[in-house]
UniProtKB/TrEMBL annotation:
Reaction(s) catalysed by this chain's protein: (R)-malate + NAD(+) = pyruvate + CO2 + NADH
Source organism phylogeny: Eukaryota, Fungi, Dikarya, Basidiomycota, Agaricomycotina
Residues annotated as domain Isopropylmalate dehydrogenase-like: 4-353
The EC number(s) this enzyme carries: 1.1.1.83
Cofactor(s) listed in the protein's UniProt record: Mn(2+); Mg(2+)
Listed InterPro entries: ICDH/IPMDH, IsoCit/isopropylmalate_DH_CS, IsoPropMal-DH-like_dom, TTC_DH
Origin species: Kwoniella heveanensis BCC8398
Keywords on record: Magnesium, Manganese, Metal-binding, NAD, Oxidoreductase
Protein name: D-malate dehydrogenase (decarboxylating)
An annotated Gene Ontology molecular function: D-malate dehydrogenase (decarboxylating) (NAD+) activity
Gene3D superfamilies: Isopropylmalate Dehydrogenase (3.40.718.10)
Length: 360
């Protein structure tokens, strides 16, 4: 079966890193005989250029069009000098996440060779876990409002929504992921000591779901001490699952504990495949370096690797991962990009990794 992928590079360095990601995916597809179709006709979708010219980030029929693909391979969006970020982001990426029910946000937190870890005394292998974030409900509901504005009775209220369906489906994904890993360990982020209704409910659902996964070891921490443990002893984690807000915090903190923003990838996943899932680098459009050709393409390449893994092409995905690691470890200063202390450029590092995928 053909894996149909819509490529949307977007703004800024999205346009620079995505061709490298595509080259690497093509190299992997060729070597492992994967039937993948990378559709590159979406050059001006989700761009601020388009917004300035046409008043919208996407054409009106975007949903029907993208619905025909298995996956979206996304670069970055945003050009804050011309278009406010809430317009560019809400007009594109956030629409995809919502309309395509991408209820899992998945990020690896992995210390890679050749990257200086901001935490002291960590070596490769010490940090290797996943953060699974609930991506559709929880604390980020739009139910609530402001009452009596400007008076001394003024107040605001914003509700947290946790549905059994919504909580259970993210927990199931996290348990499944933990079960596939050697350590089979799941950590749940909670705050049931302070948030006395929704968080005890979250804990209750974790306990219930655990019964279906007796071989998975489960622990839970309150979010405050959990963030401290991310920094103090990241070795302890394997799969970490959190509500929308807690997962948001953890999925920025986790990758930050492992070094460069330029290498981290992210998946926005609709596991049932009813809608396309989206894979993207964690970083944004980086206006400060856009156009210079020095962006690190590894975040985009690794996002492509996650995509292959998600659709079951494990061998090819493993080879891509190996190529990224070898490039980081042995590529040398002429290949490595300036964000990691080298003198290389985006196309050079991307080409180097594509070659490794073909030859390693
Ligand atoms: P950013 O991730 O674009 O940049 C932060 C810093 O990291 C900058 O100094 C940048 O040069 C550096 N950096 C980022 N990616 C890099 C790479 N691949 N190689 C080397 N250096 C890299 O975040 P920032 O500056 O907060 O946002 C810029 C724009 O991107 C805004 O419009 C923002 O809304 C948007 N954005 C979009 C995201 C997305 O599309 N998923 C995510 C984050 C921000
Ligand atoms: Mg965030």
């Amino acid at each position: 079966k053909t894996l149909r992928v819509a490529v949307i590079p977007g703004d800024g360095i999205g346009q620079e890193v995505m061709p490298e990601g595509i080259a690497c995916l093509k190299a992997a597809a060729k070597r492992y005989d994967i039937d993948i179709q990378l559709d590159e006709k979406f050059q001006d979708w989700a761009t601020c250029d388009r917004y300035v010219k046409e008043g919208s980030m996407l054409p009106e029929n975007w949903k029907e069009t993208l619905q025909q693909y298995d996956s979206i391979y996304f670069g970055a969006v945003g050009d804050p000098a011309r278009v406010p970020d809430h317009i560019s982001l809400w007009g594109s990426l956030i629409q995809f996440r919502r309309e395509f029910d991408q209820y899992i946000s998945l990020r690896p937190c992995r210390l890679m060779p050749g990257i200086k870890c901001p935490l002291a005394d960590k070596k490769v292998g010490d940090i290797d876990f996943w953060v699974v974030r609930e991506n559709t409900e929880g604390e980020y509901s739009s139910i609530g409002g402001k009452m009596f504005p400007g008076t001394d009775r003024e107040f605001v209220v914003q509700d947290t929504i946790m549905t059994r369906h919504g909580v259970d489906r993210v927990l199931k994904y996290a348990f499944d992921l933990a079960q596939k890993r050697p350590r089979k360990k799941l950590t749940s982020a909670t705050k049931s000591n302070g948030i006395s209704i929704s968080m005890p409910y979250w804990d209750e659902r974790v306990k219930e779901m655990h019964q279906q996964y007796p071989d998975v070891e489960v622990d839970k921490y309150h979010i405050d001490i959990l963030t401290a443990f991310f920094v103090l002893r990241p070795e302890a984690f394997d799969v970490v699952v959190g509500s929308n807000l807690f997962g948001d915090i953890l999925s920025d903190l986790g990758p930050a504990c492992t070094g460069s923003i330029g290498v981290a990838p992210s998946g926005n996943i609709n596991p049932e495949g009813r809608f396309p899932s989206l894979f993207e680098p964690v970083h944004g459009s980086a206006p400060d370096i856009a156009g210079k050709g020095i962006a690190n393409p590894i975040g985009a390449i690794w996002a492509g690797q996650m995509m292959l893994m998600h659709y079951g092409y494990k061998e090819a995905a493993d080879k891509m991962m190996e190529a990224i690691e070898v490039a980081l470890e042995k590529g040398g200063p002429n290949v490595i990009t300036p964000d990691l202390g080298g003198k290389g450029d985006c196309a050079g590092l991307g080409g180097h990794i594509a070659k490794l995928i073909e030859t390693l």
